[in-house]
Model the fold of this input.
Amino acid sequence: MEDKQYAVIVEPVSTGHEYAGAFRAEGLEPVAVMVAPDAVDAVHDTWHPENFAAVHVLGDRGVAELAEELRRYGPQWLVAGSEMGVELCDALTAILCPGTGNDPASTLERRDKWHMARALARAGLAHLRQRCSADRDELDAWIAEQGLSGERFVVKPPKSGATDDVHLIRPGQDWHPVFDAILGKINYTGIRNEAVLVQEFAEGTEYLVDTYSVDGRHGLVDVCRYAKSRRDDRIGIYERVQFLPPDDPDVAEIRPYVFAVLDALGIRNGCGHSEVMLTKHGPRLMETAARPAGGGHQMITRMSTGDSQIARTVAHRLRGEFKASYTLGQHLSAVFISSPAAGIWRNGDIFDGVDALPTFVDKHFPYGTGDLVPASDDLVTYLAWVILAGPDPAQIEADYSHIKAIEGRIEIEKVRS
Done:
């Protein structure tokens, strides 16, 4: 094994499924480390063990034993591929190559939204009021104490992802059934919800901020403006992801706040994927993840900027490179198409003409006429997506409006149970 170089990737699924090909293209043999023998159901289609020189599983044994098994590869660094691998990657890095990753003392603050908020409070950073507990009475008392009983607030799991089980509670609504449905449930990342997070509702415009850090220096990879819609109590239904130039005034306001958040969470090396609400009182963190952005975001970042978090990881780990910012090569919007209900899609052909739109680049329609489709209530239950790009933002706006007008004509036949 002395004549080969290896890239050890912890949970290289979902957001990190591109790492194997990226490192192999640079002459390194990718090695996968998994928490369990198989990937969780939600991301199973991104798990390709055949792409790796070897696969090692933590299973029921201790992290120290797994670390000794990995020493044969002579790792100088490790990479967390997905949310499920963040904590294990930190623990292995602390044993095998200390100082090359993130602060091991703050691992939980990069994974659990409640601990994340407390870290921001300790650092003196503006943050949303929130409380986490497995005791419903305790949360009821906190809601009353904060004066939220007559206000909107959000209820969600503290350690999940992809807008999984994010619920908006309206004034006067009984929120207890939502608490009961979340607590104890196996969430998107494959772990049981041992508590429930209650958070004040943030009114404003939401932004996605992708970063890459090298030895505590933080660099912007891309910044996007989100458009999301609500259906009943679900508030994480994606409508659009729109790339912004680095000199946009909103980027200038958000950047120092996000960099301070990264410091507070102990992110020193690697990817950061932050979601921030720009409110009338300034930016407020929704959450930060210490892994790449997912859902095809690496692909559209390359289309818009010619770069990505995956490329920055390779450039850092192999050549020690650092970039402070990015260049917007072309304007780009990813447009999400949602189903208003579960049932049989009766008119999938209404989207046949989107390929002819002036800024059309790509599309993905996993469903068509006659297919049984889910109701869209989070990031993973979208009906389809279309990518629009080009030099003229006004034309992209016109094409986006055209697609959304077609979306309003979707016909779903509900299936009787």
Notes: The radius of gyration is 22 Å. Residues 78 and 93 are 6 Å apart (CA to CA).
